[in-house]
Amino acid sequence: MFFWDKVRFLVIPGRREQELTLPRHRRFRDLPPTPVMEAMIDTYFFHVHNQPYSYFQEDSFRQRLECDTIPKCLILAILASSLKFSSHEYFHGYVREATDAYAREAWLLVLDDYMSSETPSNLYAAQTMNMLAIIDFTSGRTSSGWLKIGMAVRIAQDLQLMKEPSPLLPEVEQEEQRRVFWSIYLLDKLVSCQQGRPPALYDEDCQVRLPYSEEAFKNGGFETTITLYQFFSWDIGPDVSLSPLSLVILASSALGRCARYILHEPRTEEPPPWAPKSEFNSINSLLMLCEHHIQADGSAFETALAQYRKSDQSLDQQQVGHLLFSRVLFHVCHCLLNHPPLLRLRLQKLHCTVSSVFLTRTIQTSCEHACQLAKLLDAAASRGCHVQSSFYAYAAFLAGSILSIVIQAKRRKNEAPSVDLVTSSQQALRTLENMGSVWDHASKMHLKALLFDSNSSRVSELLDASSSTDIDPATQEMVWSTVDYGAMVSEVRGEQYLKISSAETPAFMSVDLGLDLGLDGSIDSHSNFAQGEITETMSCFSSSDLQYLL
């Protein structure tokens, strides 16, 4: 008998009719019937696992699930994480409500089971907290998500997950502990792409080795891996192979340094970025090391994809997920580090005169990586990869906004932007549009991308080294809106929609790629946003639930 059949969970699978008549707030507090549960677990491992977070060895998880050793809080968190990818009739019409209800109940249970009693925290609590943090953050509850990430970090530290697991544990359990820690580490780095939100985990405290390959993890085998410290010391032996998940961790470490440098206040004594010993140049050196291992060019990605195709030519999504994510992170790092308007803001605070040579180089580098990033996401989707990780929306928005600024800067000089620039900007928009069918925050970013693009001419002035170094607050706010992850996932204000309807034709629209800019999946043309259409679109966005338990 499966654990969800037991009376204490108040679910009797054979009585579906009675359950459907329950009040909805009760129906989604308890676990669903067995067939629904089985379908949702399958959905989780197909759509969520390794995209990019890796908490479980699938066979081991399913065995523990059948033996009733996994707590209800974690099961509810898995349900809440999987619902947006499910079309199961049990949740038809109530996906958002069920997601919030399961997440809220999981939060209350983890508090009651591990935070308000003598029961010590364990790996399940860490896994649950990290999942709930992602749900909150991508739903626009950024403060709640930020606090939950902090709690996941503290649980991981309390469990000493930053150190190597006990050698007495089976290999599968050791590797699972490593992966839980690195998943928390990864989320900590991703959400640090905000103003005033530095990472909580420091690389020098991470003594645990990097993850095994997916094959070794599935088979319970052993692999020789290294620590972050060894990697950054260039201390990699010939017998050491870096798994795709390890490459994700390395790229996320670089992202954390990029975010700390470019998104936070500079020290007054800090040297300018072009100084030989600047943090800017130090990070560039790190990115060169990452590039050597990640092999971020498009041809290498195509070659790597081929080895993960099954006999029916479908992709092994659990393997491909990390392969794609590491490359996305690499390009995001360069887009942030070389972001011309952000560097102008930083130089203003350092009271430095901008170097025209330096500015030209950063424009070229950021534009190059923004194009590659947009093309990578678009090509990955066309080749059957799951472009469904929540962070891909941030990556697409960042790339699209940089390209929009560059296009507008060229137009200011009466230069025609290249087809490659405009095509790449539309590919970024297409990624946001496609992701919007699954992620609410991607829909918000889709509209915000249109809004920014129609008003980006002001920011494009910052690409001219001869322009005023005194950047006004309104322009600064526009710049931050293109890089602050927390601002991107927040609700779109009503007046912002009205600005889109009266704005000039965006650069995104300069070349027709057959994009449907509607958010509802229809084939109607939305190239001109009538005010009535915008008002109707606003109904797609619900404000954050003010009663959500923090």
Write down the Rg: 24 Å
How far apart lie the N and C ends? 35 Å
H/I helix tally = 25
Q: What order do the SSEs take from the amino end to the carboxyl end, as H and E?
A: HHHHHHHHHHHHHHHHHHHHHHHHH
Number of domains: 3
Structural class: mainly alpha
Give a quick account of the main beta sheet: strands, pairing sense, barrel closure.
Answer: none
β-strand number:
0
Task: State the low-pLDDT regions, or none.
Answer: 1-22, 500-505, 509-550
Mean pLDDT: 84
Strand content: under 5%
List keywords for this structure.
550 residues; mainly alpha; 3 domains; 58% helix; globular; disordered N terminus; disordered C terminus; DNA-binding transcription factor activity, RNA polymerase II-specific; metal-binding; TF_fung; nucleus; transcription regulation
Any overview of this molecule?
It comes from Clonostachys byssicola. Its main location: nucleus. Residues 145-217 form the Xylanolytic transcriptional activator regulatory domain. GO terms for molecular function: DNA binding; DNA-binding transcription factor activity, RNA polymerase II-specific; zinc ion binding. This protein is mostly helical. The chain has 3 domains: 1-137, no CATH class; 160-337, no CATH class; 371-542, no CATH class. It is 58% helix and 0% strand. Helix 13 packs antiparallel against helix 15 (317-337) and helix 18 (391-412) runs parallel beside helix 20. 46% of the residues are buried.
